[in-house]
Structure formats: structure tokens, C-alpha cells
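## Example pair
The file below holds two records. Each record gives the amino-acid sequence first, followed by its C-alpha cell line.
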Amino acid sequence: MSDEPLSVAQAAKVAGVCAKSIYRAIARGDLPERRPGGLRKLVLFEHEVAAWRDAPVVPRAQRARSGNVTPMASRRPPERGSLAALRAMERSSR
């Protein structure tokens, strides 16, 4: 196994998953990402992808939530007249 840098598509092919799974693993912190030179392109290394692929699967309920990954907020505006809309108005008035 070489230590060649891989794109997300290549890493997905090595791991036998789709690219979206690779992005999810990066977001969870399971796979380290590198952006050489501050570029937008992600670079992953084959040995790290293989280690992630071969790691035992931990059920979602047993996963420890790491403090550095926050769940993404919805970009969709809350439905008019909903409790979420009321809370959004309360937050914006503070």
C-alpha cells in the first residue's frame, strides 16, 4: 500500500463506499482531511482511508459525540406560524 495522496473520489473507490460517505466521515472526525496550500481540494492518504475502512463499526447510539463537530443547522427558514419560527423571532430580537 502506497502513501499516495487521494482525492475524495479515489478514497471512496479504495474504501468501497460513495463519496458522500467519505465526506460524512471527515465531518465526524473519523478521517483526517488536508487541504494543501489552503486549496479547496481535499487530500486523503490511502493508509488512513484503509484504516478507517477496516475499523470496527460502532452503533450510532454508542458513539461518543466529540465536542468539535456541531450538527449543521437547517438552511431552510422555519415554517410560518410554527414554534421554530417563534423561537427564531425571539433570538433575532435579543
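Second record, same layout:
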Amino acid sequence: MSSRPPRRPPSRPPSRPKNVVPAEAVANRVAVSTATGLALLLGLPKFVLPVTSAILLLIGLITGGIVGMVLLLAVAGVLGWLLVAFWPVTPPRGRMIRAIVVLGIAVVGVLKAV
């Protein structure tokens, strides 16, 4: 019986995140300048933002006129802010879909006021 020491896997250097977006990019500036708001949102339970957005969206769609427009534009504004802040880490297909949703909500909001 031979006593061999246990075989250890080869060690790898720790992985480092890749800096794929230049520091002066618009998305980085938005994320940095609104970091306190993002931190506040991340501190809330995960269901708060989607449920609040859905409620405001439904109320905005049901009510008409200026109130509906304001609610829909508020939802579009928050979603647009999140889209821009997380632009570097969002896959290209996701960017396109999210941008279309934000623009669609904004257009419907403006049309509600007319």
C-alpha cells in the first residue's frame, strides 16, 4: 500500500472582472451619479419595484387624461433610467426589447392625454 498525498487541482489566478465599458461612457456616468438611488432600490425587497410599476402602469392605462399621462411617463422614466444605468451589463437583445417597452409606454402615455 502506497501512501500518496491527495491530488490537488491546479491553482488558477483569481478571475478579474473585465472593464468592457470606458469609464467616461454615458451609462457609467448615469450609474455613478445616481448610485444612491440605485442603492435604495437594491435595498428594497425584490418584488417592490415590479409590483409598484405594474400598479402604476395599470392605473395609468385605466385613467385617462393628464393623470394617466403622468403615471405612464413616470413608469417610462424609471424604466428608462434603469435601462441606461444597467446598459453595459444588459445583453444587446435585452437592450432592444427594453428600449421598445420604454418607448411604447411613453407613447401610450402621451396618447392618453390627447
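Notes on the second record: The helical segments are 26-33, 35-43, 48-62, 65-85, 92-113. The chain has five helices and no strands.
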